[in-house]
Amino acid sequence: MVKQFQLVKPVQVTLVAGRNLIQQNELPRLPVPPLRQTCELYLRALEPVVEPDELKRTKDLVEEFQRAGGVGERLQRSLEQRADCTDNWLTEDYLKTVFLDLRSPLVIFSNPALIFPPLTHQDTAMEQIRCAAKSIAGKLDIKRMNDNGTLPVEYIGGKQLCMKQCEQLMSACQVPGLKSDSLVFYSKSTTPPKHITVVHNCQFFKLDVYNSDGTRLTVDQLCAQLDWIRNSSQQTDVEPVGILTTQDRHTWSKTYSNLIKDKTNRESVSTIESSIFTVCLDGAMPPVSHHKYHQMVHGGGSQWNSGNRWFDKSLQVIVGEDGTCGINCCHTLFDGTVSVTVCDHSVSMMKKPDVMQSPSEPLPMPQKLHFNITPAIKKDIDEAKQHMDTLAHNLDVSDSVFNHFGKNALKVLKVSPDAFIQMAIQLAYYRIHRQCCPTAEAVSLRRFRNGRITTINSNTSTSDSFVKAFDNPEIKKSEKVDLMKKAMEAHSWYGMMASHGRAVRTHLLRLKSLAAEENITTPGIFTDSSFFKVFDFKLVTSQTFTDNKAANLLRALEDVMLDMRTLLEDNFTLEPF
Questions:
Q1: For the segment 83-101, what is each residue's pLDDT rounded down to a tens digit?
Q2: DSSP per residue, 137-183
Q3: CB distance 236 to 374 below 8 Å
Q4: DSSP string, 268-297
Q5: Distance in angstroms (rounded) separating the CA atoms of residues 111 and 106
Q6: Residue 440 in contact with residue 539, Cβ under 8 Å?
Q7: Residue 364: which residues within 8 A CB-CB, separation 6 or more?
Q8: Is residue 298 annotated as part of the catalytic site, yes or no?
Q9: Which among 195, 200, 298, 331 is annotated as catalytic?
Q10: How far is 343 from 349, CA to CA, in rounded Å?
Q11: Smallest Cα–Cα separation from 304: which of 321, 323, 327?
Q12: Distance, CA of 374 to CA of 183 (rounded, Å)
């Protein structure tokens, strides 16, 4: 499962510091796309996916759906009315359907993980502690900027991006529910939390990170507290309560209800959930390839560090014995571009030289959190271990660093790096499987108030023609280049439409959910087999850039990118475009 191709930078985002540079409520609301436009784009997306007879049947259903006075028009009016009285007509439904109602585990299926550049550490415990302390200090710096309104505002193409998600980075938690989860934001309480939680050897501790005068603990103070925690949690035969958060949400919600019936357990869980963030001081990992990725994504399994987590927390800072550092995030609360901001600041903080600071006031000892484990909870923990081990075993992770060329070489050829990558991915898939497949790319909606993300169908009739022609020796190179250019131009256009609030899939899905909410019989367009085929994505791709650089499909992708560039360069020399 490949979650992300981070091979080139997409459009550069500019950061501008300043308090309330442009008020959040001055951002535009997400527009409702015209119904006819969405239906037309939907039919275009179907062309490379379904057979001609299916397409003809679907065209009839679409025409019936959008006819004057029909059910589509009625649902469209209802959506427009809702859009007039809410900041964002999509985000609430997006959160509910994509995240809160999802019953799959957060680990692997939802929570993204990011890895910091490797640190030149010796394998010593004190270096792990200092790395964790500096990382904590970096996160608290971000919190301070968030709280006082000085977090740099992000811009893209001269347009301010919504910063709402940055407010949800810390002091937040996803809480399991039987049918749907909920979100809790403790930073908005009358007494915002002043503590983080630290977990070592599956034992949780509450650590206050502010002095009595309101200043945050220094790196040296944090080191002293973390060292105390590590020395106080050497026992390794503790029941890993945190592994319960790796279960599917339905199972975890039932265990959660039983767990917090006990007062001690309830107070410990509340302390974890209300903390600013969680720091995971990890033990050793198996010496196998990709263990760093597995460590950040799921912890390696029950015998390693999967119990040294609380996956419901908005932000988990992970520091291993060997200097491996990274974060695991609750995707429900924020998207990749926001978590990258956290990483970049943290890495900058950890690169700063150590400054020895004089001792200050005596610090209170961290508070160990206790759990009373009943036989029923013990059984749930054992089942969670087995389930987590199966998940860890079934996850395949491949990575590739492409050093041959980057965005600048493509821009010389007047090619969009993002569109180039997307066409390369589709061509690589076609070379392996000899067929095209529905492919999605994530597109940010942060130019709108409370905007999150949407998706576009990267595969189009133009991309379909391009990938089928590329390796055909009977087609001239100039024709192949023309097909490549048309495919990339089409992809860029669809991406632009989506980023301006005109994505097809999210519009149609919201109309479908409105039909259910208003007790309208589900229109045929939504029960049609074509509707399921076009959005049954076999490849889901995204790009997130960062200031810190660092399978079969990936191997094929590298060959494809070299071949595509060579073809472009040959044509560029002959016929500049």
A1: 999 999 999 999 999 999 9
A2: HHHHHHHHHHHHT-SPEEEETTEEPP-GGGGGSSSEEEE--SSS-EE
A3: no
A4: HHHHHHHSS-EEEE-----SSTTHHHHHHH
A5: 6
A6: yes
A7: 208
A8: no
A9: 331
A10: 10
A11: 321
A12: 27
Q: Which residues pair with 441 in a beta bridge?
A: 456, 541
Q: How many residues does the chain have?
A: 577
185: helix, coil or strand? strand
User: 397-403 — which CB contacts under 8 Å span 24+ positions?
Assistant: 397/1, 397/2, 397/290, 397/293, 397/294, 397/297, 398/2, 398/290, 398/551, 398/553, 398/554, 399/290, 399/293, 399/554, 400/7, 400/554, 400/555, 400/557, 400/558, 402/7, 402/558, 402/561
Residue 168 phi, psi (nearest 5) = -105, 10
How far apart are alpha carbons 447 and 451 in whole angstroms?
7
The pLDDT value recorded for residue 506 is: 94
**DSSP three-state, residue 325:** strand
Q: What does the angle CA 370 – CA 181 – CA 269 come to, to the nearest 5 degrees?
A: 10
Is residue 546 predicted with pLDDT exceeding 60?
no
- 176 touches 258 (CB < 8 A): no
The structure tokens 């991006």 sit at 161
Total Cβ atoms within 10 A of residue 135: 25
- CA angle at 83 for the pair 81 and 88, rounded to the nearest 5°: 165
Q: Which two tokens stand for residue 317?
A: 């800072």
Does the pLDDT of residue 413 top 80, yes or no?
yes
Amino acid identity at 412? V
Dist. CA 246–CA 125, nearest whole Å: 27
Note the pLDDT tens digit of each residue in 207-252: 999 998 889 999 999 999 999 999 999 988 899 999 999 999 999 9
Helix (H) or strand (E) holding 457: strand 453-457
Q: Which domains does the chain have, with CATH numbers?
A: 35-96+402-574 (3.30.559.10), 109-147+190-394 (3.30.559.70)
